[in-house]
C-alpha cells in the first residue's frame, strides 16, 4: 500500500549529476576513459568537488574493476587511484583523507619511507591490483573520481538552493556560447537560467561576484522580435519579471541576454547568441521529495495510467526489500509505459528489471545506478509489464519513482 498523497513533481531530477553515477554506498563515481597524468586527473576530480577514488574493501575493489573497465575508450593502461606515500611519516594515505584500511598491491612488498619515491598508484586492468610508476608525473592513464558526500536530501542535488525559494542555481565559470551553455545545463538537469524575481536575480549576481565573474553571465532569455514582446525563457517558463538595463532590450545588439554582474542592479543586456562566450548560469526547480515515506511493504495492487510507483520506503535510504510490481493497461491497448522520474540505486547491487507482460522473462530493460532519469520504457507485446526490484545493498540510496502511462 502507498500512503495517499498527491504532489506535482516539478522536474526530472538526478541523484548523481551525470557523468557521475552511483556505484555503491550511494556515492557518486566517474570514470575518465581517456589518458591523463596523475596530477591532471587529480585536478579534474577536484574541479568536480570530487577526489581520485579511494578503495576500502575487496568488494569495492571488485566493483571498481567492473565499472571502470571495458568502456568504449578504455585504453587498457589502468586507472589512477588516490593512493600516495607520505615519505615523512612513512605512511600510505588516500588523497580524500579516508583511512588506508585495505590495500591490493600487485607486488609483495611496497615500502613507503623517506627514500622511496612519492608513489602514485593505479589499478591494472588485467588483475585489478595496484601498481605504481617511477615516472608517474608524465605517464598518462584513465582515472576514477569519487565524491565522498552523498547528495541525499538536497532538494537541489548538486545545484545551490536559493534560500527561501524553490529555485536551484548553478554558476559555471567556464566561458561558453548560449548553445553550449544550454547543453551543459541540460546535462545537469536544468536550463540556462530563468529568473522570476529579484530574490533569484540578486542571488545570481552575488554568487557570480563571489566567483570573481565580473564581466557578466549568460542567462536563458531570448528575444525573437525587435521589441520586448518576443521574449522567452529557454526553460519555457513565463516571462513574468524582467530587469533590463535602461537602454534594453535592444535586439540590434543580439537576440540573447546576459546579466551584468559588475553592476549592483544585476541588470540584463542583449548579447549575440553563439558569438558571445562568457560564463553562464543554469537554474532548475527544486525537487519536491515527498515528506511522507512510503511503507517498506510490497504492493498488492496493480498500477495503471497516471499512477506513480515508488520503491519501498522512498525516499528514505537503506531499503532492504525487494518487490514486484504489475503495470496493467486497458484490455486491447497496444502497450503500457513507465517514465523514470527519479532513480537512485547502487549499481553494484540493486537493480530494477522491466519485463514484458505480467509473467515471463522477456526483458525490456534493467536499470541500476542513477542515470535513467526521464527515460521512458514501453511494452511491445501487449498492455502489461512486470517490474522486479532486486535489492542486495540499498545502502544510502533513496530508490526510485516511476510514472505509468497506459
Ligand atoms: C606527512 O606526514 C607528516 C608527518 O606526520 C605530516 O606533518 C604531513 O602533513 C604529511 N603530509 C601529507 C601530504 O599528508
Ligand atoms: C625504505 O624501504 C626500502 C624498501 O623496503 C628499504 O630498502 C630502505 O632501507 C627503506 N629506507 C628507510 C629510510 O627506511
Ligand atoms: C522567486 O521566484 C522563485 C522561482 O523562481 C520562487 O520559488 C520564490 O518563491 C520567489 N520569491 C519571491 C520572494 O517571490
Ligand atoms: C513588437 O514585435 C512584435 C513581433 O515580434 C510585433 O508584432 C509588434 O507589433 C511589435 N510592437 C511594437 C510596439 O513595436
Ligand atoms: C493484476 O493484473 C493481473 C493480470 O491482469 C490480474 O490477474 C490480477 O488479478 C490483478 N490484480 C489486482 C489486485 O487487481
Ligand atoms: C524553448 C527554447 O527556447 N529552447 C531552446 C534552448 O536553447 C537551445 C540551445 O540554444 C535551443 O536549441 C532550444 O530550442
UniProtKB/TrEMBL annotation:
Question: Under what name is this protein listed?
Answer: CUB domain-containing protein
- Species source reads Pristionchus entomophagus
Which residues does UniProt assign to the signal peptide?
Answer: 1-15
Keywords (alphabetical) are: Disulfide bond, Signal
Source organism's superkingdom?
A: Eukaryota
Domain spans labelled C-type lectin: 24-130, 164-275
Coiled-coil zones: none
Q: Where is the CUB domain?
A: 298-406
Amino acid at each position: 500500500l502507498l500512503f495517499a498523497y498527491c504532489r506535482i513533481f516539478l522536474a526530472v531530477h538526478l541523484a548523481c549529476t551525470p557523468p557521475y553515477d552511483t556505484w555503491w554506498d550511494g556515492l557518486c563515481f566517474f570514470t575518465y576513459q581517456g589518458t591523463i597524468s596523475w596530477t591532471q586527473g587529480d585536478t579534474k576530480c577536484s574541479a568536480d568537488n570530487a577526489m581520485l577514488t579511494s578503495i576500502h574493501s575487496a568488494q569495492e575493489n571488485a566493483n571498481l574493476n567492473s565499472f571502470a573497465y571495458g568502456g568504449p575508450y578504455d585504453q587498457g593502461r589502468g586507472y589512477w587511484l588516490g593512493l600516495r606515500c607520505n615519505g615523512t611519516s612513512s605512511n600510505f594515505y588516500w588523497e580524500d583523507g579516508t583511512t588506508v584500511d585495505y590495500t591490493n598491491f600487485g607486488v609483495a612488498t611496497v615500502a613507503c619511507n623517506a627514500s622511496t619515491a612519492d608513489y602514485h598508484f593505479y589499478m591494472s586492468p588485467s588483475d585489478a591490483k595496484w601498481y605504481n610508476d617511477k615516472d608517474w608525473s608524465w605517464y598518462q592513464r584513465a582515472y576514477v573520481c569519487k565524491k565522498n558526500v552523498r547528495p541525499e536530501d538536497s532538494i537541489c542535488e548538486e545545484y545551490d538552493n536559493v534560500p527561501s525559494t524553490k529555485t536551484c542555481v548553478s554558476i559555471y565559470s567556464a566561458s561558453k556560447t548560449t548553445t553550449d551553455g544550454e547543453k551543459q545545463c541540460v546535462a545537469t538537469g536544468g536550463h540556462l537560467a530563468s529568473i522570476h524575481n529579484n530574490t533569484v536575480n540578486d542571488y545570481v549576481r552575488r554568487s557570480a561576484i563571489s566567483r570573481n565573474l565580473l564581466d557578466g553571465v549568460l542567462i536563458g532569455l531570448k528575444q525573437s522580435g525587435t521589441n520586448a514582446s518576443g521574449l522567452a525563457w529557454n526553460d519555457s517558463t513565463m516571462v513574468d519579471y524582467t530587469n533590463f538595463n535602461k537602454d534594453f532590450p535592444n535586439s540590434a545588439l543580439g537576440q540573447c541576454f546576459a546579466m551584468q554582474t559588475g553592476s549592483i542592479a544585476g541588470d540584463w543586456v542583449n548579447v549575440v547568441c553563439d558569438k558571445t562566450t562568457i560564463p553562464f548560469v543554469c537554474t532548475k526547480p527544486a525537487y519536491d521529495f515527498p515528506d511522507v515515506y512510503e511503507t517498506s511493504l510490497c504492493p498488492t495492487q496493480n498500477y495503471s495510467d497516471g499512477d506513480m510507483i515508488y520503491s519501498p520506503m522512498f525516499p528514505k535510504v537503506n531499503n532492504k526489500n525487494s518487490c514486484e510490481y504489475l503495470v496493467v493497461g486497458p484490455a486491447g491497448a497496444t502497450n503500457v509505459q513507465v517514465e523514470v522520474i527519479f532513480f537512485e540505486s547502487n549499481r553494484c547491487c540493486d537493480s530494477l528489471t522491466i519485463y514484458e507482460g505480467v509473467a515471463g522473462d522477456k526483458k525490456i530493460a534493467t536499470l541500476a545506478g542513477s542515470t535513467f532519469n526521464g527515460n521512458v520504457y514501453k511494452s511491445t507485446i501487449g498492455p502489461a509489464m512486470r517490474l522486479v526490484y532486486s535489492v542486495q545493498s540499498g545502502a544510502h540510496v533513496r530508490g526510485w519513482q516511476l510514472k505509468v502511462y497506459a
